[in-house]
Design goal:
This protein is an alpha/beta fold. The strands form two sheets. The protein has a six-stranded mixed β-sheet. It has a five-stranded mixed β-sheet with strand order 1-3-4-2-9, with no helix packed on it. Helix 4 crosses helix 5, helix 5 crosses helix 7 and helix 5 packs across helix 10. The N and C termini lie far apart (43 Å).
Length: 376
């Protein structure tokens, strides 16, 4: 296969490997997508961009041959797969040390602009001291020992158990109905689409798991802090600007309460993260003992057993990643790491629709698919 990126700077020249497969694009869109064995790499995620019948944005194309494979030390990788029936899939993976999801899509959109030979619409801003605690200098912060210095600790691995993966499409109309239902109890004057959708999925996944009523369950999510800080970070800030939050309760209470009550749990944890809270957590993070990372990792694995872990965001502009072939047919995670992980993307038609990519045990997924109140 040929691939050409015009006017690319060194910052955008990524290692590729290119392959052809016998599957047809229509088959790929009907099933979950997986990348090659990613169980032993410390990469944030591989995302797949699927296009039908691509046409080169420029007439001069140069062949891109096999250059690399995935290894733990790589910070950015890409794979292009061509389908015999027409169309391609572009897979991308990035270390979370470099950037969060917001910056990942910033990079992807900028890269696609380079491919179309147009100016980058939002230049990246590398403000290394923007999130530095007031008690530290940049030089002091750089001395903080890395928890992954040996390349062994804190590498995220895919669950060894079999997972059933499904994509649930929530139309804008369905999400409006969920919001309306959540507001009937008067617990809040408004809920966001994120809050009601997470509440809806969390409740029904917990019900499908058929847990002991006293079992603790958690909904874990990541928050973009850029607009929560005072002053806020600029839109082009490139790096990690995340904080984590979660709602915690018992299985019996979660399943038995209203959608409004569950959405309120999530909402309360989200609004608690203001500038002061974020700054205090940054201070505490700099004081954290790196030797605790292995214990923290084990603790997180135990807490995640009956959790719903929310990744990505429907606010990311995934369908604006146009390499010159038009909008992607679909954007999906190539793999889901653990039972209970849900990855959110905006629906292709826009207008507030959301695709929920969910991984569960086969038995739990089968039960969920039979839950008519979940599927509406």
């Amino acid at each position: 296969m040929s691939l050409f990126i015009p006017n690319a700077t060194d910052a955008f020249l990524l290692p590729f490997f290119v392959c052809s497969v016998s599957s047809r694009l229509s088959e790929l869109l009907l099933q979950s997508l997986h990348c090659a064995d990613s169980s032993n790499i410390g990469l944030k995620r591989m995302f797949l961009f699927v296009h039908r019948d691509p046409v080169s944005p420029r007439t001069g194309c140069s062949a891109v041959k096999f250059q690399t494979v995935f290894v733990a030390s790589d910070v950015q990788n890409a794979q292009v797969t061509r389908f015999v029936g027409g169309g391609i899939a572009i897979g991308c993976a990035q270390s979370h040390v470099i950037a969060d999801g917001h910056s990942f899509w910033h990079f992807m959109n900028s890269w696609s602009e380079c491919a179309r030979d147009v100016p980058i619409s939002l230049p990246p801003l590398h403000m290394r001291t923007a999130l530095l605690p007031a008690s530290l200098t940049l030089e002091e912060a750089e001395k903080f020992p890395s928890p992954v210095a040996s390349g062994k600790e804190f590498i995220i691995k895919r669950s060894t158990e079999d997972l059933a993966e499904s994509v649930f499409h929530f139309t804008a109309s369905t999400i409006r109905k969920l919001k309306s239902l959540a507001l009937q109890h008067g617990l809040a004057t408004s809920f966001t689409s994120f809050e009601v959708l997470c509440a809806h999925v969390w409740k029904h996944v917990t019900k499908a798991r058929q847990l002991n009523g006293a079992q603790k369950v958690r909904c874990f999510f990541l928050l973009n802090t850029r607009s929560r800080l005072n002053p806020p970070l600029p839109e082009g800030y490139f790096g990690n600007a995340l904080c984590s939050g979660f709602a915690l309760t018992t299985a019996a209470e979660l399943v038995g309460e209203s959608l409004a009550a569950t959405a309120a749990r999530i909402h309360q944890n989200i609004v608690a993260y203001d500038d002061g809270t974020i700054r205090r957590e940054l201070e505490e993070l700099e004081k954290f003992d790196p030797s605790m990372f292995p214990k923290l990792s084990k603790s997180n694995e135990e807490a995640n057993q009956w959790s719903v872990n929310v990744a990505s965001s429907p606010r990311f502009r995934v369908y604006e990643t146009d390499f010159g072939w038009g909008r992607p047919e679909a954007v999906r995670p190539a793999w889901i790491r653990v039972d209970g992980e849900m990855v959110l993307f905006a629906g292709r038609e826009g207008e507030g629709s959301v695709d929920v990519c969910l991984g569960l045990s086969p038995q739990t997924m089968q039960t969920l698919l039979q839950d008519h109140h979940f599927l509406w």
